[in-house]
Amino acid sequence: MESEEAVLALAALAQSTRLQAFRLLVGHEPDGLAAGDLARLLEVPPNTLSAHLSILSRAGLVTSERFSRSIVYRANLDEFRDVAVFLLRDCCGGRPEVCTPVMESLRPCCPPKRKEKSRA
C-alpha cells in the first residue's frame, strides 16, 4: 500500500458519520446493508449518506452492488486490513516489542480459530 492510499482511507474515516457507517457495515458483513437501511440506522438524510458513502467508496473502504432499485453497501475488509497492516508495519520500524501491546489488545475480540482434533 502506498502512503497516498493510506492517507485517503484515514481521511475518509476521520469524520464521525463515515466512521459510524463503516463500523455498521463491518458489523453486517458479509451481507452488507441497503443504503436506505443504513441511512435509517444512522439517522441521516439519504442524500447526506450518499455523499459520505461516495467518499468511503473513493477511498476503497466500501463497495456497492445494485439489486433492482436498491444499492447494497459492504465494507471492503481487505482494504481496511491493508491500511491497518501499513500502519503497524511503519510504526513498529522492525521492532516487534513496539507492536506487541497492540497485538495483545486485539486478542480478546479476535481470538484465532482453533483446529478441532479429529476423533477416529
Q: How is the topology of this model organized?
A:
Elements: H1 3-13, H2 16-27, E1 33-34, H3 35-42, H4 46-58, E2 62-67, E3 70-75, H5 77-92, H6 96-106
Antiparallel strand pairs: 1-3, 2-3
Helix pairs in contact: 1-4, 1-5, 2-4
Structural features:
single chain; 120 residues; mainly alpha; three-stranded antiparallel β-sheet; 6 helices; 59% helix; globular
Give the structure's gist in a few sentences:
By secondary structure, the protein is mainly α. The protein contains 6 helices and 3 strands; from the N terminus they run H-H-E-H-H-E-E-H-H.
Please give a structural write-up.
β2 and β3 (70-75) form a beta hairpin. By secondary structure, the chain is mainly α. Helices cover 59% and strands 12% of the residues. It contains six helices and three strands, in the order ααβααββαα. The chain has a three-stranded antiparallel β-sheet with strand order 1-3-2. The chain starts with a helix and ends in a 14-residue tail after the last helix. α1 (3-13) crosses α5 (77-92) and α2 packs across α4.
Write the element-wise H/E pattern from the N-terminal end onward. HHEHHEEHH
* Helix content percent band: 55-70%
Estimate the global geometry from the Cα principal axes: globular
First and last CA, distance: 46 Å
Our Rg estimate from Cα atoms comes to: 17 Å
Instruction: Please count the beta strands (DSSP E, at least 2 residues each).
Output: 3
How many alpha or pi helices? 6
Percent strand equals 5-15%
Helix/strand/pairing class, anyone? mainly alpha
Low-confidence stretches: none
Oligomer: single chain
Strands side by side in the biggest sheet: 1-3-2
Q: Please describe the biggest sheet, giving its number of strands, its sense, and whether it closes into a barrel.
A: 3 strands, antiparallel
Average predicted confidence as pLDDT: 87
